[in-house]
Amino acid sequence: MKFKNFFFRSVSITGVPIFGLLILIVALFQFVVPIFNATVGDYITNLVPVLLLTVGAAIVIIGGSIDLSIGTVCGLSAGITMWTLASGLPTALSILLGVATGTFFGLLNGFLITKFGINDFIATLATLNISGGLLIVLSQATELYGAESEFFTSLVYGSFFGIPTSFFIAGAIILLMQFLLLKTILGRRIFAMGNSGAAANVAGINVRNVKLATFVLSGTLAGCAGVLLASRLGGVQAFLGLGYEFTAIAGAVVGGVSLAGGRGSAAAALAGGLFIGTLAQGLQLIGVEPIFFGIVSGLALIIGVIFDQKIQDIGQLRSRFDSRVLAQPPRKEGDHG
Amino acid sequence: MANQRFNISMKKFLSDPILGVIILLLLVGGVASFTVEVFFTLQNFTNFLSGSYFVMLLAMGMTVVLISGGIDLSIGAVMALCAGIVAKLALQGMSVPLVIVCALAVGAFVGCLNGLLVTVVGLPDFIATLAMSAFATGILFIWTKGTPIVGYMDETYKQIGGLAPIYREVTVPMVIAIVVAFALGAMLKKTKFGVHLFSVGSNRLATRQSGINVTNIRILAYVISGVCAALSGIIMAGRNTTVPPDLGGGYEVLAIAAALIGGASLMGGRGRILGAILGEVVLAMTINIINLLGVPSSYQKIFIGGILLLAVLVNQLVISSRTKILMRSTNKK
Amino acid sequence: MSFPTALSTTRSAPIILDIRQISKSYQGVAALENASLQVRKGEIHAVLGGNGAGKSTLIGILSGVTQPDSGEFLLEGSALAPRNPRDAIKSGITTIYQELSLVPALTTLENIFLGRELIIERAGMKVLLDRKKMKNEVIELAQIFGISKDELDIPISEFGALKKKVIEIVKALTFDARILILDEPTSGLEEEERLHLFDHMRNLRSRGVGLIWVTHHLDELHGLADVATIFRDGRTLESLNLENSTVGEITNLMFGIQSNEAGLRTKNDRLQKDDKSNRPEVLSLHAVSRAGVLRDISFSLHAGEVIGISGLAGAGRTELARVIMGIDTRTSGQIFLKGKEVNFKSSAFAYKAGIAMLPEDRKQLGIISGLSVAENISISNLSSVSRFGFIISRKKERELATKYKEILSIRTPSVNQKINNLSGGSQQKAIVARCLNSKPSVLIIDEPTQGVDVAAKTEVHELIRDFTSKGGAAIVIASEIQELLELSHEILVLRNGSIVGRIENVQNSIEKSRVVEIKAEVLALSAGKRLKNEI
Asked: Looking at beta carbons, which residues of chain A come within 8 Å of C357?
């Protein structure tokens, strides 16, 4: 019963369309592309880092901001992990450093926005360039591949009961984020801030700290994604991660996370990310060039936003109707004021 | 009376967004003259200026959009796409004027789409233009199949790219930048549209209540920045001699930084064309100094990010200190 | 009540605006009922009335922002029905609001001609602005109102409040305005600037413009306004010839003392009898200032006590509340809570320390619109509904909300309902519940009953009394003096960010004659002039 409640709250009304769509396209591709089933495991493994980014993007967007830096931060984290591994640090420490890189950039973003009052997308656009630039420098200074650590590669390629390890890792992280958003005090404050920052500020919420927390979370998730990415690829190139932020934001928005803030969930973002990923994979199997994915993401994003606006319109209509029902009968004239 | 006149001219001077960038220009120039010997040579100046015209064009377009209260993150990608169009069509043997017209048309079209997405569809401006950036990059990738387009260069494109001068030190990009600067500057200062552009960015509601079609103005701002990006792309095709698929990456950031350094505001209603030009000169100078100091070019992207942050901070600082000065002067009175 | 006939005979100028029996209601509640008034050529017609008396609805209708349910108005004999502000301006009715409708980035000249610029023809193209011609067209008028030729080329953002008002007036005149509505034109102006503005208004009168002047400042009327129409409860009560009526008469009409109940209801007998010093001091402010907004505010608040804050809009009332809460920072001064100095960095710390706030703008700052009623109630003290200090228990939250729903009789089918679906009164009570749930020792309430119906209003008042009778202390900010008198033990009057008057020891039951006196005094203090001799 309790679980059921949690599940329904996770999916919620706005989640229905995306889960429906997801099931629909999976069914469609299975029908159209015979080898779809065989490749599905692989492709989800490939998708895992982006899904983590999608959830991170969702947290920031629910809080009413945007984080454009997650893609390149993810790439840099992968680079740092690879570099430290290759230079012989213990695997656990390398992983920690990779994740910490993400956390650091999250903190940096958060401080730029809350302490210096810089526009969120300008600040993260700047850190996008800084983190991307650092990866370029790093990749030219050393070779970012060839780490020999079984434990590290097993992060992605190992498996429990036939299911890849990365599924468990990502699943656990996403579940944790879902829990954090829906069941904890911080989560509630993030929603309140996203719905109305000014009102939350008056209602006893330290809006700056909460905003900082959302960026730290998304940065840390980008760090985790980077570690998994490094593990999967085994090598890191200079431009890794560039453009991932866009897929992630698109995924979150398609999943029903409102760019206006205050609405959505980690599960919804996950569904949205899976939807875009499945679509991309399916199209590739049909023979569409992978380069169309940017275009597909862009289209999905636009449609998602329009859809979100329509939902808001419907919600407003409903609340108008409700308030009419709830409104008390007019009092005698002259009574008011 | 004389005092009042002085007050008025003081106010005029302080309200001019160009003030900050001039100070910055002197500052950077001063630092450069102390640190780098070869900085103050004609050779070096023409060198770094010739590499800055295409960003100047982007920054001018960005300034127009910023004045209208929007932002255009697609211009880097649109520039690259238009460079791709030039290369592709030139390879197919199309005549130069026709190629240019096609590229400009594509720039205008993409700008128009941006405007429609922002106004009619109601997407947030940076999301809409980011999506457009993904589209444009996607199309270029499809065309190039991941490898640079080559083999389209001839004498004309060399001239267009500024690799060959048309008269002494005068190059085509220089001429284009000057012509566009004068055209846009006149448009902002002397035409009804220019006034409405500032008006929309400064107080959208009051502008609408004055019976002005706000939507059209905003769309046109994006069209202008699209056309500027196309012009920039045409130059780029000639200058770069090849069109790699990732040509446009990051130039929009430089353009925003230049525009902001030049006094434009993310809040809309502020900005000047001359400011954008000087802003880009400051940027080009800074990058030039960094290069002359022997910092490898791989560090450039990091600096660009840092410069953007600095630009925003300086921009905020200038605006807030200006308000403080003005408040003090009115309080005294 | 009848119109004094003397009025129509003494003034012979033709009527230019004739408002006939206009009514307007919002969601079944009448905001304006058969309002009628006439404005003559070259007349300054003051429109007076308390909050919610219907003045702003009338302005909205005249300026084309809203449309009336019934009734009509005639401008120079022909009926008008403007559908939008532009329509109204074109027909000759311009409204100058408190919030300016000028474009800050544009120059004076560009603002005056915005949307109807003059174009010069060059080489067969009509693109260039003809600034010279525009300047020539407006310069004479501008100079009459003290705008120099140079100032035409300066952006609006560089001007002070008075100049902006004057520029709007000039702009209206270039539209050939025959009726000019000034909504609280002196707000934000310094004393000297007001006098300048009044000169301009006289100038406008002599040009034959009909001025409708909405104001709270009764002391400004004499010697300037010709006629005053008083609004109360959505009706136009009376048009007075101002030459032979006193401020006392006007306040009587505005606040309806005659028809009101005698005196005031009990506040809180037990505590009132105590000597103030017997009760512990909870909150005290020592010379608190915030640059440009608040100046040297000092007072102390004791347990069980309510301090009322009065003052006009923009006097610094809300700003004071925000500074105490730590939402805005103070530039100097000290705040002590229960004897300890505090310096809140955000409202979160204020709530933790025991200060809660109900903000003025309910829609923007009060309710958190996407969240449910229960979530709105618990948000300021989430640890009260959580386990292990960080996990929210929906069950506890629901129980808490249901408890408050019963106590405060919040009308909602379920506490899981989105708060935007509730009526204004119930939303307000939910926010009161939010404040109470943070177990505050000090409650700051900004306009407790704005946009709330009468029944809910008394309920909210009861809640405040109940809170203080249990030892809580409260600061109530309200525009209605009646409301402050009913609730508070002491009233502070703010003007331009300073305390300009204190009314200590407000009694539980006050005779109605004394009520009138206090009201007039508070009004006078707020407006910056003593009117004692007139009462």
From this structure: 202
| CATH dotted code for C260-354+441-535 | 3.40.50.300
Give yes or no for residue A9 having a pLDDT over 90.
no
Nearest residue, CB atoms, B253 vs list A119, A129, A301: A129
- Mutation target to probe the A interface, by most A beta carbons within 10 A, among B118, B308, B317, B319 is B308
CATH 3.40.50.300 given to domain C5-92+177-255 = yes
Dist CA B294 CA C474 (whole Å): 66
Distance in Å, alpha carbon of A248 to nearest chain C alpha carbon: 24
* CB-CB neighbours of A88 under 10 Å: 8
Cβ neighbours of residue C77 under 8 Å, at least 6 residues apart?
none
Residues C441/C433, Cβ–Cβ less than 8 Å: no
Domain ranges of chain A: 14-322
- Given a contact as 3+ CB pairs under 8 Å, which chains touch B? A, C
CATH of A14-322, one of 2.40.128, 2.60.40, 2.60.120, 1.10.3470: 1.10.3470
Q: Which residue of C has its CA nearest to A207?
A: C346
Q: What is the pLDDT of residue B67?
A: 96
| Nearby residues of C228 by Cβ (< 8 Å), 6 or more positions away | C45, C46, C47, C48, C221, C239, C240, C242, C245, C250
Dump strand ranges (E) for C409-531: 442-446, 473-477, 490-495, 498-503
Write out chain A residues lying below 8 Å of B74, CB-based: none
Cβ count within 10 A of residue A89: 17
Contacts of A291 in chain B (CB under 8 A): 138, 141-142, 146
Query: pLDDT tens-digit profile of C301-319?
Result: 988 889 999 887 678 888 8
Q: Do A294 and B302 touch (CB under 8 A)?
A: no
CA distance B322 to B9: 15
CB-CB neighbors (< 8 A) of A322 in chain C: 417, 421
| CA atoms of A144 and C295, how far apart (whole Å) | 62
Map tokens 């920690």 to a residue. A96
pLDDT in tens, A278-293: 887 777 777 777 667 7
Q: CB of A327 within 8 Å of any CB in chain C?
A: yes
Put simply, the answer to whether A259 touches B312 (Cβ < 8 Å) is no
Whole-number Cα distances in Å, A309 to A257, A302, B131, C56, C468: 11, 11, 17, 32, 45
What token pair was written down for A288?
A: 């569409």
What is the rounded distance in angstroms from the CA atom of residue B198 to the CA atom of residue B194? Answer: 7
Mutate to test the interface with C, among A182, A202, A324, A332 (most CBs of C within 10 A): A202
Q: What is the pLDDT of residues B82-114, one digit of tens each?
A: 999 999 999 998 899 999 999 999 999 999 999
Q: For residue A58, what pLDDT is reported?
A: 96
Whether the Cβ atoms of residue B104 and residue B79 lie closer than 8 Å to each other: no
Q: How far is B326 from A330, CA to CA, in rounded Å?
A: 51
Query: Which pTM does this prediction carry?
Result: 0.84
Segment among B34-38, B135-139, B240-244, C469-473 with least mean pLDDT: B34-38
Partners of residue C25 on adjacent β-strands: C30
**Gap from C360 CA to chain A (nearest CA, Å):** 11
In eight-state DSSP terms, residue C241 is E
Strand partners, C342: C335
Nearest to B4 by CA among A91, C185, C146, C4: C146
Q: Whose structure tokens read 């453009």? A: A243
Q: Is C117 on the interface with B (CB under 8 A)?
A: yes
Task: Assign domain B43-320 to a CATH class.
Answer: mainly alpha
- Closest Cα partner for B97 from B185, B157, B182? B157
**Mutation site, B127, B141, B247, B314, interface A, largest A CB count within 10 A:** B127
